[in-house]
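Hi C.,

You asked whether I'd gotten around to modeling the 174-residue construct. I have! Everything is below, sequence then structure, no commentary in between.
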Amino acid sequence: MSDPAIDNDNLDSFVVSNTHYYRSKWQKIVATPASMLSFNWAASFGQVFWLAYRKLYLPLVWAVVAYIAYVALWIYVDDKQLISTNVSAVLSWAVSILFFAVFGLLGNYCYWRRFRKVERQAMSRHSDRDSQLRFLRSKGGTAPLVAAVIVAIFLLPAVWAFYWGVYKASQYDF
């Protein structure tokens, strides 16, 4: 069963900002389901921050779990010296590029799937149009505060490590 055309009012209520971009991307997905891959620069470079900003919390959890698993594996491999430094550097770059590609290519599709799910919930739970649009607005939109908290959580260890490194370096007389 194919998806019906995208209702512009639903899309505008859910997406709120940058609606023209998502309308054009999602119309291609609806017209050609095989076109689920389309590049989203914000998703590619923002990754977990973009997921938080767009309220894609389940994919956000999966992404954080993937990052933690990647870092834990890398710490283990480095600690046990299982591969050479050169191979480690190449693999690290390859994994980074993979993360950029996956987020960039699947971001629009992931966001579209969330929109469709919330849209179905709005239609089944609310009989009048205004209530449906309010529901879409409440579940969609953006969450800049959540994205800022995610940025803070990711940056705090880096800032602490930088500060601690500078502090320790200042203890020595070069």
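If it helps when you're writing up: Residues 85 and 136 are 50 Å apart (CA to CA).

Thanks,
B.
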